[in-house]
Design goal:
The protein is α+β, with helices and mostly antiparallel strands. It contains 12 helices and 12 strands. The protein is 39% helix and 18% strand. It is globular.
Length: 330
């Protein structure tokens, strides 16, 4: 499995929050649900979308937006429309003054909005929210920008239409069907976005290591790319800059300089962050042990591994797994 495939292999939705929003103007959704990742797909009309601190972008039919949490974001019929609906953690829908709106705006099977009952609304949008980061993978979340907007003319996929057809069906096992379609839509959109940004350059005409897609672009670099693949394919190896340079066929100094320029951080810093992101995913397996995961990511001592893990994630490996399990069963 190549490293890009390893990233895209992460999403595994389980009881994801999937619905169709149908809205009439004026409307403005302020989403502060703290969810790790949400996929939005416009199926009728158009809107404006913005993450906190960014300028609003038009959101048209066929466009797909991937919003990485816990950052908040706004979707509205017009950038000047005042907030009319607030989405809280747990997908609780409230008015700005706290009035519950979930039942009031129910419009049928997995359909919700402010339009009159029986109306399709002037705007329709599919919403798929991953409830916990354990359903996506820490490596993927860490690599994504806050907002990824994929335009209709930048990719060709039947998945939005399929999800739209299935979201309003009420059939046995429908939740599983929607989970898998959401995974496919996310992975396909990310693959298209990766391809779109592969050749991005900075103002000096160099690969932009510090932009949100720097990691992916660095894989095309003739020196940094092979070194990245060595690290990602075999994180248990006791890699040093000298060992990586020998494998790539360049000097130690050249590898260190080229890697930092392309990736945005030194090789050993990237190695540690990759190991810790991978370890976070591995610890979620029910049969995982600290010792086994430590060995898989290149640590001979469980104690040393646990110290590094806590430094990276703010909690011990076991506590990290227990917290994720509690969220899954909540």
């Amino acid at each position: 499995m190549d490293s890009v495939a390893a990233f895209l292999d992460g999403p595994r939705a389980r009881q994801a929050f999937v619905l169709q929003a149908v809205l009439d103007p004026p409307w403005s959704l302020y989403v502060r649900d703290e969810a790790p990742l949400t996929v939005l797909a416009m199926t009728r009309g158009e809107a404006w979308i913005a993450s906190n601190g960014t300028d609003p972008c038009r959101f048209r039919v066929g466009d797909v937006a991937i919003m990485r949490g816990p950052d908040h974001y706004t979707v509205a019929d017009d950038p000047t429309s005042p907030v009319s609906i607030v989405i809280e953690p747990g997908q609780r829908c409230l008015s700005p003054d706290g009035e519950p709106l979930t039942e009031r705006f129910a419009r049928g099977v997995r359909t919700w909005g402010n339009c009159p009952p029986g109306s399709d609304g002037t705007m329709s949008m599919l919403v798929g929210t991953y409830v916990t980061d354990s359903h996506i993978g820490r490596r993927l979340l860490d690599a994504l920008p806050v907002m990824t907007l994929l335009r209709d003319d930048e990719w060709d996929s039947p998945l939005v239409s399929l999800l739209g057809d299935e979201v309003i069906r009420d059939a046995p096992g429908q939740g599983v069907v929607l989970d898998r379609l959401l995974d496919l839509l996310l992975v396909s959109a990310l693959r298209a976005a990766f391809g779109r940004h592969a050749g991005d350059l900075d103002e000096d005409g160099r690969r932009d290591a510090h932009g949100p897609w720097g990691w992916f672009r660095a894989h095309a670099d003739p020196v940094a790319g092979p070194a990245l693949r060595l690290i990602e394919d075999d994180p248990s190896q006791a890699w040093t800059v000298a060992a990586l340079a020998s494998k790539v066929g360049v000097s130690r100094a050249h590898l260190a300089r080229r890697f930092s320029d392309a990736v945005g951080e030194p090789p050993m810093t990237y190695l540690t962050s990759w190991r810790m992101a991978l370890a976070a995913d591995l610890m979620l397996a029910a049969d995982s042990t600290v010792t086994a995961v430590a060995q898989q990511v290149g640590y001979g001592s469980p104690f040393t591994f646990s110290t590094a893990f806590k430094r990276a994630h703010g909690t011990s490996p076991r506590a990290y797994r227990n917290t994720a399990a509690e969220r899954d069963t909540a």
